[in-house]
Amino acid sequence: MIMLPLSDNVQNRINLLGHESFHRVQPTLGFKLNNTDNNHLDQKEGRVYLRLELEALKQAIQANSIKERNQHLTAALSFRKYRQSLYNESYTTENNLELNEGIAEFTGLIVSNRTKKETVDYVSKGIDDFFKNSTYIRSFAYHTIPVYGYLLSQQDKEWNKKINTTTNLTDYFIKVWNIQIPNNLEGTVNQLKSKYNGAFIIEQEVERENKVKKIIAAYKAQFVENPHFEIKFEKMNISFNPSNLVALEDKGTVYPTMRISDKWGILTVEKGALMSPNWDRLSITNPTKVEENKVFGDGWILELTEHYKIEQNKDDLNYRLVKK
Q: What's the predicted TM-score (pTM) here?
């Protein structure tokens, strides 16, 4: 599946097509297709240390010497290791998404046939644009692994053939570059922040956190606390925008726009839906209009197949799908 419209720039078109073509053959290459959210990257500390890592990566790819490059890589991987130490399971969930989307984007970058300068400019601009995204929980891997991978390909063009679905990329990069991660990580990253725009990043993230708390409270009321419509998946296919998600603590992730097809029909969402943490069900607002094979709500439309209908629980007023 390709997001339209395609770019007018031939290299950007090839980049995207290469990325999506990798997904097509991904299972045959031994890489599992993972849909892993990283909700910790919607929290202030998670976002701060991801941005610091990417600032260091941007300087690493722009470096004029191997010594300078390695200094920035050491900083980037130190920020990464410290971030992962703050959140349980983030070591695994970040890696799962990077093996899925990160390797695919690295593939697209390599086959796009840009010059070295064009590549540096492209990924640097990509990182700057990424910082403007409302959320990072599913889109960060498009920017981390392409930089690590491109730098590594300068010394080993086939490094990506030496990894598989069980590889932890963080450990792999640390080992292959012989990076020395300091024992006192907290003290080290605090000293490094000023070199990578730390004060500005922290100021922005404190301001964002205050705004997001209000958004989370509204979504929680809408999809968890108030009566809502819960839809369980049977054989689901989904398309969505990975750059505008909202993590709802341990309740899952709100996807402002998405399209889902399943045995029960097609759901099109334009104003938000809550995906469960393990991707087995979805919550939307209660319906406002019900026809025989079509159900309407505030910002969503559900087209039902002939074997399904909806019904309301009289106790909690929640709706659900049932087979006829």
A: 0.79
Query: Helix or strand or coil: residue 285?
Result: strand
Across the chain, mean pLDDT equals 94
Question: Among residues 240, 239, 41, which one has the least CA distance to residue 136?
Answer: 41
DSSP assignments along 46-103, one per residue: HHHHHHHHHHHHHHHHT-SSHHHHHHHHHHHHHHHHHHHHHSTTHHHHHHHHIIIIIH
pLDDT tens digits along 78-134:
999 999 999 988 999 999 999 999 999 999 999 999 999 999 999 999 999 999 988
For residues 273 and 300, is the Cβ–Cβ distance under 8 A? yes
- DSSP character string of 209-264: HHHHHHHHHHHHIIIIIS-EEEEE-SS-EEEE-TTS-EE-GGG-EEESSEEEEETT
- Give every CB contact of residue 132 below 8 A, 6+ residues apart in sequence: none
**Cα gap 72→67, rounded to integer Å:** 9
Q: What is the pLDDT of residue 98?
A: 96
The DSSP code sequence of 95-128 is HHHIIIIIHHHHHHHHHT---HHHHHHHHHHHHH
Say whether pLDDT at 36 is over 90: no
**CA triplet 120, 77, 12: central angle to 5 degrees?**
25
Asked if the model's pLDDT at residue 243 lies above 90, the reply is: no
pLDDT digits (tens, 9 = 90+) for 294-316: 999 999 999 999 999 999 999 99
Query: What phi and psi values does residue 64 have, to the nearest 5 degrees?
Result: -100, -5
Q: Taking a C-beta distance cutoff of 8 angstroms, is the pair 314, 323 a contact?
A: no
DSSP assignment letter at 287: P
